[in-house]
Amino acid sequence: MRTEEEARVLVDAEAGVRRPAEGTAARRAAEGAAARRALLAHPAVLLVGIVLASLNMRVALASVAPLVGEISAAFGLSSTASSLVTSVPVLFLGLGALVAPWLGRRFGAERVLFAALLLLGAGVLARVLPSVYALYGGGILVGTAIALLNVLMPGLIKRDFPDRAASMTSVYTGAMIAGATVAAAAAVPLEKALGGGWEASLGFWSLLAAVAALAWLPQVLIARGRTGHEVRTVPAGGARPVSVWRSALAWQVTLFMGLQSLWSYVLIAWMPTIFTDHGMSRSTAGMIFAFNNLIQVAGAFAVPLLAGRMRSQRPLIVLVTTLVAAGYAGLMVAPVEGAWLWSAVLGIGQGGAVGLALTLIVLRSGDAVTAARLSGMAQTIGYLLAAAGPLAAGALHQATGSWTLPICVVLAVCAAAAGVGLLAARDRTV
């Protein structure tokens, strides 16, 4: 008769696939567990890899915004076509998220994250080639690469830091926004320092992706004997994992992720342009945009920590959506006079919202399997929804010659995010 240990199966964090603990499968599972123990025995290596990967998750997007005017002039793009420089990567954040779970379970998170960083560097370089097709094609590579990072990171954190998921979410969201802050602040100065125009400024960030890939390589080597994602056991006769696509709660988390992403990517695409359209210099607009990203770090770090200590996150939903709505309203009524204030208010709200959205994925999941699946769903649907934001805002601005109507639409998005967020913040799991 089989022992209790023999009657258990190991569950893969990315796939949710059960592997019988017998024969070759048992040996492969043991190799994976050993690899995982070896990796976690060096937490500094893992932490450095997570932080450096996270730094890259918005750099390629934030570095474009202060340079949109020059890029548009170089290729003769209209406002709507210019918005595609940001919308195309965001669209592929959603489409790339469709394949991320499959790649994770086929090759393992370590290998996929390493490959994503290499792909990101290639996409950044492709965008600086003297062709509008390369500009958009590089955006496809950038969006796909970031999608892989976005989707696999929550599951990896739930897997490797199950007792510190909220605090680790704070670390990686804070690093993600810090990278965006530096990229936004440095875009125009790099253009001048490198003496190569906007192409040199954008291309510079491929170096950060290369450094992150190098830092991730030890984890790939440690886990090379097996995918190494076995993190928990369940009885062999246990219930099959639930389908997140049939869960109302999963859809509520997904819609909050998408709506908060939409308002963020509208700002990433158009905030500096809103300021310059009202007479502000490019350098000042770039600095205020960088300040907005810097303030986001505070919200992204603090809100997940607070969320992890609360049974229901409803007060935080109200807080972040109200701050974002107030900041957008300020941009509509006094964009230049109150630019620094609105940038700060928006920053706290934006950072808090993205941190809360990512934390909800972890908190609303019962285990690492569900976290990976919910992450894939939320970021697939969420970013496909968010991709419409910059494009719609650019089209409305081109049609009306004003930013009033686009901002009014985003205020309606804030109201909708508050509604679904209050449902997603309830104390329950998928």
TrEMBL record:
Q: Which residues form the Major facilitator superfamily (MFS) profile domain?
A: 42-430
Stored InterPro entries: MFS, MFS_Cyanate_Porter, MFS_dom, MFS_trans_sf
Q: What is its main location?
A: membrane
Q: Which Gene3D superfamilies match?
A: MFS general substrate transporter like domains
A single MF term (Gene Ontology): transmembrane transporter activity
* This protein's GO CC annotations: plasma membrane
How is this protein positioned relative to the membrane?
A: Multi-pass membrane protein
Q: Which UniProt keywords apply?
A: Membrane, Transmembrane, Transmembrane helix
* Record's protein name: MFS transporter
**Which species is this UniProt entry from?**
Streptomyces vietnamensis
